[in-house]
Design brief:
This protein is α/β, with parallel strands linked by helices. It has a ten-stranded mixed sheet with strand order 2-1-3-12-11-4-5-10-8-9, with helices on both faces. Strands 6-7 form a two-stranded antiparallel sheet. It is globular and about 55 Å long. Bound molecules: adenosine-5'-triphosphate. The site of adenosine-5'-triphosphate (ATP) has 13 residues, from loops.
């Protein structure tokens, strides 16, 4: 019998802890027997050092060709002339939807139990449009862009995701009492979509009240739908509910490509020490395996990860242990059956 064709997938090791966690994840997928030809490309600070560019055209061409990428965290060089690399990548590939499932993992003690929510964050506009200027010295204007088109598109994504995954409720999060036009347009667009999706309960919460409800009773939430900036902030808040940034995966979807990456950043404070938790990127990689149809492999690795966490002997420092990134990955491999 012919061996199955390998999947060709773009791999961005990234900056800071990126190379450490991506190496760990690639190792686990490899031992699990998933056939992948990785096309490695740099981005961010690592790419600037080598090529002078934060987003080399070969990288964008590789993702456009392969339509799937696994991405470590990427940092934007500080200084004039560099716009956010992550925003640039999402814009270049029109990855309009950012999906972040936040749930308790077995064996991980956290402030809350029974958290199982999904953040759907709009990825292309809002204050991330990067439109800022100095009006006069001492006065700066940052433009928050909200469009009906992008708001409708992300609402459709959220409701359709909810239906596909058997989720029953979508909560739109906003500050339309203050930004009556901008967040008002976001809400109007979401409401119009909600009317066409009758099977899913639809509610709205003002972002400050939503934060309070999240830290008091997070188990009441199902799918959260947010514009870009609130999505960024609430994602980190939600990561804290279940044990921290080392545990929460993510994916960016567009019509033509999907890029899988953890919620966390490049964590310069712990970079190069082999102590980062690779779980968030591993879970992102499992979302990627589901996306490319490798569901059996994803389930098998998920079971091995659960065993490792429940057993608890090998844990990284963020979960109260002293294991290295590599030792944790080895333990997941050992638990593969
Ligand atoms: P960004 O602005 O890119 O989100 P940041 O510096 O604000 O970056 P992170 O890089 O995500 O945020 O780091 C926030 C904190 O969480 C740091 O103390 C970091 O060490 C910790 N952290 C992030 N990811 C991990 C991980 N995978 N394992 C352990 N600790 C992590």
């Amino acid at each position: 019998m012919l061996a199955p064709m390998p999947h060709v997938i773009t791999l961005i090791p990234g900056d800071g802890i990126g190379p450490e966690v991506t190496a760990a994840v690639v190792h686990v997928l490899d031992v699990a027997g998933v056939q992948i030809d990785w096309e490695r490309h740099d981005a961010g600070i690592t790419a600037v050092e080598k090529t002078g560019q934060t987003l080399p055209p070969e990288l964008l061409a590789s993702i456009a060709r392969n339509r799937v990428a696994l991405k470590g965290p990427v940092a934007t060089p500080i200084g004039e002339g560099f716009t956010s690399v992550n925003v640039g990548l999402r814009k270049a590939l029109d990855l309009f939807a950012n999906l972040r499932p936040v749930r308790n993992l077995p064996g991980v003690t956290s402030r809350f139990q029974n958290v199982d929510l999904v953040i759907v964050r709009e990825n292309t506009e809002d204050l991330y449009a990067g439109l800022e200027h100095q009006v006069v010295p001492g006065v700066v204007e940052s433009l928050k862009i909200i469009t009906e088109k992008a708001s409708t598109r992300i609402a459709e994504f959220a409701f359709d995701y909810a239906r596909r995954r058997g989720r029953t409720a979508v909560t739109a999060i906003h500050k339309a009492n203050i930004m009556k036009l901008g967040d008002g347009l976001f809400l109007d667009s979401v409401r119009a979509v909600a009317k066409t999706r009758p099977g899913i309960a639809y509610t709205e919460k003002i972002v400050d009240a939503a934060c309070m409800h999240l830290v008091m009773k997070p188990e009441q939430f199902d799918v959260l739908l947010l514009p870009n900036l609130y999505g960024d902030i609430v994602s980190d808040l939600c990561a804290g509910l279940v044990g921290g940034l080392g545990l929460v995966p993510g994916a960016n979807f567009g019509a033509r490509a999907a890029v899988f990456e953890a919620v966390h950043g490049s964590a310069p404070d712990i970079a190069g020490r082999n102590i980062a938790n690779p779980t968030a990127l591993l879970l992102s990689a499992l979302m990627m395996l589901d996306h490319i149809g490798e569901t059996a492999a994803a389930a098998r690795i998920a079971t091995a990860l659960d065993r490792t966490l429940v057993d608890g002997r090998v844990r990284t420092a963020d979960l109260g242990g002293s294991a290295t990134t590599t030792a944790f990955a080895e333990e997941v491999v050992r638990n593969l059956v």
